[in-house]
Amino acid sequence: MTQALVVDQAASQLTGLLLTLNDRLLLLPNTAVAELVPYRNVQAAQNSPAWLLGQIPWRDLSLPLLSFEAASSDAAVNTDSARVVIINALGGRAKFRFFALVIQGIPRSVRIDPSLARVSQEPLLPLELDAVSLDGEIAKIPDLAGLEQKLADLDLI
């Protein structure tokens, strides 16, 4: 195999992570996720929206913990057997590099290539940019910058 072919194949495939939520799957590039940690030591948020669950300690930082379902559709938050993914912030704010998202289960690694099928008839909720089909399952592409903006709107970042 020539080097040009290897480079071309690498450029046309990415690795993504499927995150299981209570009511949907999210698909993120693997570089968006810094780490998976247990759901524990959450300092509950007072007088805040239902989607902001509180703060979680991580590597000498205190990160805001969000529920994607509650932020996008006011769905009830379920933390039974929950885990937390630490997300790399995209907004370019110097003092805000990470936030945390509650999920269910362990993320699954998937290959993303140009043949990934968009599902145009799938209804999108707020904070969902698109929907795709992976092995017969529908996964939503989250608006991570939109989640960061919700935190900014509360003057948390």
Automatic annotation (TrEMBL):
InterPro entries assigned to the protein according to its UniProt record, in alphabetical order: CheW-like_dom_sf (IPR036061), CheW-lke_dom (IPR002545)
All copies of domain CheW-like, residue ranges: 13-153
GO biological process, one term: chemotaxis
Superkingdom of the organism of origin: Bacteria
UniProt xrefs under Pfam families: CheW
Protein name: Chemotaxis protein CheW
UniProt source species: Denitrificimonas caeni
